[in-house]
Amino acid sequence: MPTSALGCRIHFLGLPVRIVILLTAACAVLLAGALASAQMQTRPQRLCITTLNQAGARIANAVAGDFARCVKLAGKDRLPAGQTAARCLTADTRGEVAKAKGRVAALAAKKCVVEPDFGPTAASVSGMFAKLFSAKAVFGPDLDAAIIRASADQAAAACQAAVARSMARIAGIELREFNACTAAGLKQGSITSAAGLAACDGADPKGRAARALRKAQRIARRKCAHTALATVFPGECSGAAVGALFDCVRPRVACDVCLAMDAADGASKVCHRFQDGVANPYCGDRPATSQSVARQWDEELLAAIRVDTPRPTVHARNLFHTAVAMYDAWAAYDHTAVPYVAHESAASTDVEAARATAISFAAYRVLSARFARSVGAPRSLPSFDARLQALGYDKDFTSTTGDSPAAVGNRIGAAVLAYGLTDGANEVDDYADTTGYVPVNAPLVVKNPGTVMVDPNRWQPLTLDVAISQNGIPLPQTQVFVGSRWENVKPFALTRSDPNDIYLDPGPQPMLGGVGDAEFKQVHLDVLRRSSQLDPDDGATIDISPAVRGDNPLGTNDGTGHPVNPATGLPYPPNVVKRGDWGRVLAEFWADGPKSETPPGHWNVIANLVSDDPRTEKRIGGTGSILDDLEWDVKIYFAVNGAVHDAAIAAWSVKRKYDGVRPISAIRYMGRLGQSSDPMAPSFKAEGLPLEPGLVEVITAATTAPGERHEALAGHEGEIAVYAWPGEPDNPKTQVNRPRWLRAVEWIPYQKKTFVTPAFPGYISGHSSFSRAAAEVMTRFTGSLYFPGGVGEFVAEKDADLTFELGPSETVVLQWATYYDAADEAGQSRLWGGIHVSPDDFRGRITGSQVGIAAFDLAARYFDGRIAP
Fold first, then answer.
1. pLDDT range class, residue 8, cuts 50, 70, 90
2. Could you report the per-residue pLDDT of 191-231, keeping only the tens digit for each?
3. Would you place residue 593 in the very low, low, confident or very high pLDDT band (cuts 50, 70, 90)?
4. 265: closest CA among 257, 276, 255?
5. DSSP designation for 818
6. What residues pair up with 684 in beta bridges, in sequence order?
7. Are 252 and 281 a contacting pair, CB within 8 Å?
8. Cα atoms in the 13 Å half-sphere on the side-chain side of 113
9. Do residues 763 and 650 touch, judged by C-beta distance below 8 A?
10. CA 238 distance to own-chain centroid
11. How many CB atoms lie within 10 A of CB 821?
12. pLDDT at 24
């Protein structure tokens, strides 16, 4: 069986030898599995397949006959009263379609005693062959409008009728030859799968179809010689010459036949006929969408990220490099914009179509290579293939030679992939660390109380019995620093004078027992305080309206909100919610994005929502001409993803340099030592947790007495207790774990028990850096601080949108007036989630701001040609 029939095709464009070997091995596995599942059919099974396909051909012939008859009768005004040509096609006036369909069930009962392993069923044959002729490709979308009455133009009516008859005749011969081919192949044993059946499409061993085509062409020359074909056939063949009319018509007929056979036999065949990688004609109905091709590929990328291991650094890079591929393909057909990697300069008489083609091939090549080894590859790669096919492009067109848009796109994709092999990310080895990083602290075993640390200011990996990412992908039980080498990755707009230093240095974090000791303790106390407030039934409420929240000076939470919505001129209405619901929704919504597309991907989702809003005027910077959707999308992805890529490099460089501890380690460590507030009181230790009544207390015999607040902690007198969220309930879909007193050495963040904390140091916050960088770009790109309409929202439905536990108890609507407000909330959410402290957040915001401003400024120079090629 040919590998092409199994969909196992390898494209070597720009791939290193190591990856080619891996892909070749994967292909061999697929091929072996397919060969194992392919089966030669028994004689009764072969009889069933051929009988049903022949029955389908009879249905198709009846439908085709009706088509020719309806066109003829409509042209002569002889249709029954009130019937149109379009209705005639489905009316089955002579009952021949119904009669042919009626025979299918009887034949199946008689001839299909042994069900075949593949091929048609009675239902698929009846359903699909009955839909054989759409006629839209030749007669246009409105058959009734296209029909010309003989009373108005006899020659034109005769031409239409003759062509319709020839179309029906050709379809019948195509089906007969298909059935002859499948019958022979089944008997010989060369057809052992649905793909083998599909290979018979277009078979014409005795030249019958070719002779029918020549005859049809002769009839067309005779019958249509004195007609205006653009009027007679207003569909896709309107520009054909009379002498070559069926060179255009025949592929459209073949398309309908192929689609019917493919659906009936379940072969999943691509029915397009391709020319230079582009469907000509496009076979079937294009999927209805108003989205640009760039947007469609961005959605494909986001979907692939959601089913892959959530590595923010890696996916920020994937987002940027895919955006580069699409931008460079767009810029290849522009006289002003400067490409980033692939400096192509192409020309086309149809620039819009050429750009769509080049962008699609470039994006497809990058995505297919980048996700070839991902855990989600079994879902993502077929989705990429399906998207390319739906757009009308041939994934097997791998040529990089010539000026066809597909070849241009292939070259650009190859150039971006080659660039990625030299950018310092170590893609070939799956981004493995080669810098020798080793954590100074032994892993914290989360299920065991407390922790032991060599340096309490440095990161400590976690060990879990079962480790699963937030999108459900198994992880190593003991964490490894994800992105430890990212300071070596080539950025977009970041610069540094010292190649041995990091790009943006915020200085060290507060240190326990060192500079910033008091701040260190207080910011961890703040995390505990938020954890204690994750109770939707504690009676506390909070107004989260933009009227009172947001408008923070950079790197603070000191804002007092916005007095007026600039879009309406009215004050923002109050938005009072339960504090415990708000904190939980905040932590989960911003965790990795609402669908786990990681923080960089989440800002692509936000950009797409803004782009979709009808109130958005698509002018870069709010000035100049309005851009079409494709140009807007290509450029916003280039700018936003350049920013989040640089944010990953800047933030992870800081993480690597300062190796900052996470709250779970710090709180457990300080809690194990004791309290640091009163040297004269029991359990004092200078590096212990500060005491705060009702939040952090020493467990005593009095407090563990029956009925007292620490009763459940009896036996642990002298230890430190914290009032906090106790961890994920047994059944998160139906239960809520409200805060209670627990041992400080057992404290856990508001996260799933199989995740707990990300696998990299805390300082600085990636969320804060990504979000502020993207917000800076969105503000500058749209020319407005504000979301369209003056407010952005996310609705968390009651008891539906939380996954760590049941909730929220009431519907919560998160609201942000500006992109900065949303970015600040993303940073704040990590404190509610218990995985960052405020210095991580604030300094991450400041870093992100510098990154975003630089990224937009550089992107704008590429857009308007101010940068040297």
1. very low
2. 999 999 999 999 999 999 999 999 999 999 999 999 999 99
3. low
4. 257
5. B
6. 675
7. yes
8. 5
9. no
10. 38
11. 25
12. 44
Between CA 762 and CA 659 the distance in angstroms is 7
The 8-class DSSP code of residue 27 comes to H
Phi (first) and psi of residue 720, to 5 degrees: -100, 135
Length of the chain: 869
Give the DSSP per-residue string, 101-146. Answer: HHHHHHHHHHH-SS--SSS--HHHHHHHHTT----HHHH-S-HHHH
**How far is CA 674 from its chain centroid?**
48
> Residue type at 764?
I
Looking from the CA of 683 toward its CB, the CA atoms found within 13 Å total: 22
Is 8 or 383 the better-scoring residue by pLDDT? 383
User: What do you get for the CA distance between the two ends of the chain, in Å?
Assistant: 48
> What gap in Å lies between CA 544 and CA 816, rounded to an integer?
9
**Going by C-beta distance under 8 Å and a sequence separation of 6 or more, which residues neighbour residue 175?**
56, 57, 60, 61, 257, 261
Predicted TM-score of the model (pTM): 0.90
Tell me how crowded residue 621 is: count the other CB atoms within 10 A of its CB: 13
> pLDDT tens digit string along 91-108?
999 999 999 999 999 999
CA–CA gap between residue 383 and residue 389 (Å, rounded) = 10
User: Which structure tokens are listed for 221?
Assistant: 């020359």
What lies within 8 Å, CB to CB, of 438 at 6+ separation is none
- 268 within 8 A of 197, measured Cβ to Cβ: no
Secondary structure letter of residue 462 according to DSSP: E
3-state class (DSSP) for residue 496? coil
Element (H, E) at 674: none
CA distance 638 to 642: 6
Name residue, tokens 């005593």.
Answer: 700
Please give the Cα distance from 69 to 122 (Å, whole number). Answer: 27
CB contact at 8 A, 126 and 257? no
Task: Supply φ then ψ for residue 127, to 5 degrees.
Answer: -75, -40
pLDDT tens digits, residue range 158-194?
Answer: 999 999 999 999 999 999 999 999 999 999 999 999 9
DSSP letters for 606-631:
HHHHHHH-TT----GGG-SSPPPHHH
* DSSP E strand boundaries for 372-458: 444-445
Q: Are 742 and 817 spatial neighbours (Cβ–Cβ below 8 Å)?
A: no
pLDDT digits (tens, 9 = 90+) for 10-40: 344 444 444 443 444 444 434 444 433 457 8
